[in-house]
Amino acid sequence: MGPPAELLHGRAGPEAWRNEAKATVRAANQLRGRCWREALAQWHPPHPPGQPQETPYERRTRLQGWRFKLDVTEAGETLEKPPEGPGITLWKSKMKPPPWVSQLPLPCFRDHCASQSNGLAARYASAVRLVVSRLRQAHTELNEQAKRLNLARQRLDAALAKVRTALLTNKQSALVRGHRPPAEQAPDQVDALLRWERKELQRLKVELEGDMDMSEAHIKALGKCQHTLSMLCQERGQVLELLGQPLRMVLLEAKRESWLSLSRPSSPFVVRNPTPEPSPVGPYTPECAAAIEEARCLTLRSKEVLATLTAATAQAMASRHQAQAALDGSLQRKMDETLALKERLYMALGGMRSTLNRCQRFHGELDITQGMTMGPESSQYLEAREKLTRPLVRVYQRHVGTQLPEAQILTQGSVQLERSMQKAAANVQQMQATQRHLRASIRDKETGFHVDASVQRLRRRRMHPRSSLAEACQLPCS
Fold first, then answer.
1. Would 449 disulfide with which of 122, 123, 235, 338, CB 3.0-4.6 Å?
2. Residue 275: what pLDDT?
3. What tens digit of pLDDT does each residue of 161-175 get?
4. In sequence order, which ranges of 254-390 are alpha helices (DSSP H)?
5. Which among 138, 151, 137, 140 is positioned nearest to 306, based on CA atoms?
6. Which residues of 217-243 are buried (b: 16+ CB within 10 A; e: fewer)?
7. Predicted local confidence at residue 377, as pLDDT
8. Burial of residue 407 (number of CB atoms within 10 Å: 0-12, 13-18, 19+)
9. How far from chain centre, in Å, is Cα 100?
10. What is the predicted pLDDT for the residue at 242?
């Protein structure tokens, strides 16, 4: 008799055994799925917190953006190109998903950390090098400004020395003109111009000394700012030992041709490296920002100071030349007038000399005439024709009323001759006094001319560019 039929058909193993195997398979599948999901979760980018879950439509749209795109070339061929942008190109799946981020350290995690740290240090060093480049460029610019200001101050100091020399020359000119004769010391146009020149030069001297003090204070401020920039360059440059320092090229590579313009908006046609915000722990510290801002203000102020010094120097030189030209012209006119008057005095002296000679000759002739009129001193020397008792007169006087007026006429003629001689002598004395006065006037005019000529030569010599204040001080002023 055979085995029972229920033992020949159906499942041979027990139900519990099968259920146990199924449970083991199900547990293995669940473990595999959980491990797969956890592994994927370690590679998928993290889901932003606070956002709703992705819908199926959004997921399909996102996946559609990963697929290759069809592109038709000019020859009519069809090519599949991956979408542009970062990601991992899967050529077999024709997809390019975005780059995933691992949530766990990879085997290269140590090298990755080291490379990240190196990159951070390199970026910090590059930023610090840019800051140091700006600081060094600012220091160089301030140094150039200080050089230009020093040159301008040297020119201004030379102009101030010329003004002081002109003041001393003005005083010496007045002193030298005081040695003219008293007749030539009447106040004239030259004296008025000397007083005007003295006031103008004193005003210029005060203005130039004020400009010198102002420029000196500004140069001191530049030096202080340069010292600050140098200290900051030294402090910031401690992290640049491993980097090359072509500082000018650093600015050009950063699209910054200048270290200025902290708040200037960038040009729409040029991509510029913006100035970072000051940070106490960053490459661009508040001290650097304050130093660059101070350098910017001093740069703008330096341009104003340089323009002021240049204008003051030009004005001083122009005023000095204007005063010199006015005084030189006035002295030349005074000398011309002196020469003209001296010529007229010479002509008057010549006429006076000839007149004096004629008067002296006339006085001598009058003296001879008087002597001839009065006759000899003794009667024994009288000739018979000269006596009042000559025979012809005695015979004539025998009648009554026949008196001759010869004696009276001779007496009156003698008196008139005496008066004429006295008047001629007085005229001769007056003309001799006038002649002496003319000669004294000519000497005074010559002395005044030579004094004015010496003053003119002195002033012209002092206007020479090589004339110095020490040379002017050699002439005493008292």
1. 338
2. 67
3. 999 988 988 888 888
4. 286-374
5. 151
6. ebbebbeebbebbeebbeebbebbeee
7. 66
8. exposed
9. 65
10. 72
* Predicted pLDDT of residue 260: 53
Q: What distance separates the 2 farthest-apart alpha carbons in the chain?
A: 255
Q: Which residues does the chain have with pLDDT short of 70?
A: 1-2, 5-8, 10, 40-51, 100-102, 244-276, 374-386, 400, 402, 407, 476-478
Let me know if 291 is exposed, middle or buried by CB neighbors in 10 A (0-12, 13-18, 19+).
buried
Compute the distance between CA of residue 470 and CA of residue 478 in angstroms, rounded to an integer: 17
Which tokens sit at 462? 């002092």
| Token digits of residue 394 | 């005695």
Helix-helix angle 406-462:286-374, to 10 degrees? 160
Cα–Cα distance for residue pair 193/291, rounded to 1 Å: 52
Task: Provide the angle, in degrees to the nearest 10, between the axes of the packed helices 109-177 and 189-236.
Answer: 170
Q: How far apart are CA 59 and CA 222, in angstroms?
A: 65
Vertex 118 angle, CA 116 and 120, to 5°: 70
| pLDDT, position 99 | 75
Task: Please tell me what DSSP assigns to residue 380.
Answer: G
Place of tokens 């009042």: 388
In the numeric block, which tokens belong to residue 362? 């006339």
Residue-wise pLDDT for 130-186, tens only, equals 888 888 888 888 999 999 999 999 999 999 999 998 898 888 888 888 888 888 888
Query: What's CA 372's distance to the chain center, in Å?
Result: 94
Q: Residue 478 gets which letter from DSSP? A: -
Quote the tokens at residue 391: 């025979």
